[in-house]
Amino acid sequence: MYQYVSHRENQLLLPDDFFLPFGGKLNKENRWAKLAQLVPWAYAEGKYAKSFRNSFRGQKAVSIRVALGALIIQERLQLSDRETVQQIVENPYLQYFIGLEGYQDHPPFHPSLMTHFRKRLGEQVLREINEIIAVEAAKSTPDSDHDDEPKSGTTSKGKRTTKRRSTSEEDPNQGVLLLDATCAPADVAYPTDLNLLNEAREKLEEIIDTLHAPQIGRSRKPRTYRDKARKEYLAVAKQRRANGKVIRRAIGKQLRYVARNLQIIRNMASRQPLTLLSRKQYRDLLVIQELYRQQRMMFERKTHQIEDRIVSIHQPHVRPVVRGKAKARVEFGAKVSVSMVNGYAFLERLSWDSFNEGVTLIESVEAYKRRFGCYPKAVLADQIYRTRQNRAFCKAHGIRLSGPALGRPVQGEEATEQRRVARQDARKRNAIEGKFGEGKRRYGLGRIRACLAKTSETVIALQLLVMNLERRLRDFFVSWLNRLLSYRIPAFGNIFEV
Prior knowledge:
By secondary structure, the chain is of the alpha+beta class. It has helices spanning 7-10, 31-38, 41-49, 64-77, 81-90, 92-97, 113-140, 193-212, 226-237, 244-269, 279-301, 361-372, 388-396, 413-442, 453-486; strands at 153-154, 160-161, 176-185, 319-322, 330-341, 344-351, 378-380, 400-401, 488-489, 493-494. It has three domains: 24-122, no CATH class; 174-185 and 324-483, Nucleotidyltransferase, domain 5, CATH 3.30.420.10; 193-301, no CATH class. Strand 5 and strand 6 form a beta hairpin. The chain is flat, with a radius of gyration of 29 Å.
C-alpha cells in the first residue's frame, strides 16, 4: 500500500528545521543539502506510486524521498546495500537528504528493500527524472561552443564558405549535440565454453541430488560420474596454455556429461514433479537447456558465434558486445547510447543485444528537438555515425555533421580549413569520452553489480542521473565563484586585485 504524502510533507524541509538531538544546525552549503533542492521529488512520487496496487491493505510503503534518495546515495558513494543503510544511520546530512525530519539512531528501512526500490523505480522513470534535471540545467548553462563555431567551413559538396551568418539573422538551429556509445560491463567472470559447461554440469548434479532426496533408501541414485568429470575438467583448466585440440576434446566430454545429466532429470521428472526444486534451481535448469543447445550447435559447426549467446548462467540476459578496444576486444554487458549537451548526459538507448550506434543519430536529434525546441547547430560524432542516411537527414535540417564530406578530397586552403575544423570537433567531442571515463571510474559504470536485467538497467540510468546532479553542483559552485571574483568595492576595485 502506498500513501501520497501531504502538501506539507511534500515541501522541502530547510536544513535549519532538521532536528538534531545533540544540538547545532545543519550547514546549508553542504552538498547533500544542495542536492536535495535539485531532485524533482513531487514528479518522481507520481511515477513511483504507479508501481503499487490500489489497495488499503498491507504495510505502508516507503516514500519516494527515502527510496530514490537511498539509491542516489548508494551510487554517489559506491556502497553496498547494507553499507548504504549504515551510512544513513551515521550521517545526519544523509538523513536530511532522504526526507527525515530529525536525526534518528536506528535504520529507516531494512537493506533488503534496496532491491525493491530499484525494481519499482525502473529505468524509464529515472530517465524521465534525469531529463527534467538535465534539460533545465543545459538550458541555463551558457553554450561555450557558440563562440567557437568555425568562421569558415565546407558544404556537402566540398566548397568553402567564408561568409559568416550575421547576428541579426535568425538561426533556427542552436547548440551542439555530442553522440557516442559504450558498454556497461556486468559483474560476471570472463566466460569460456569449457567453464560454462563445467558450471552447468555441477548445477545439474545438484538438481539430481534434490530430486533424489525423497527416494533415499528406496531407490538407487542415477550415476553421474561427477568425480571423473571434475578431474577431466581440471586437467585442462589448470594448463597454462592448452592448444585448441585439447580444449575442443575437453568441451566434447563436458557436453556429453551435461547431456547425460539432462536425460537423467527428464527420466526423474516423469516419476515425480519438478516442484521439489527451488525457484533458482528451476530457473537454472531452463537456462542450462538453452546453453547446452547453443554449445552443442557451436561444437558441431566448429564456430564460436551464435545468436543470443548465453555467457552466464547466473545472468542469462548478458550478451557479448564486440567493441574492439585495446583493453578488451569483447565486453559482456549492456550497450548504452548516450548524448550530451553542455556537459549533461541523456540516455538515448539501452540494450543487452549489440546494435549499430549509427542508427540512433536520427532519434537522438529528434529527442534534442523535443527537449530544447529546435534542432542542434552541429552534431559531433565518430565515423560510424556518418552514414548516407544520417548525412542526408542532417543536410535536410541544416545540421552540420562532423567529419569530412563525401567525394573527392579537397586541396590547398580548403583542406587546411577542413583539418582545422576536424581538430576542433575532436577536441569538443572528447567531453563525452570524459563523461564515460567519469562514470566508469567514479560511479560504477565500469562494473554493474546488480544481477537482474531490470535492476541493472535501473542502476545504469541512476548513474547518469547522479553524474548530472554532480555536474549541476559544480556549475553552482563555479557561478558562485564567478560572482565572488566579479564583486568590486567602489573605492578599491576588484577584491582580488593587488
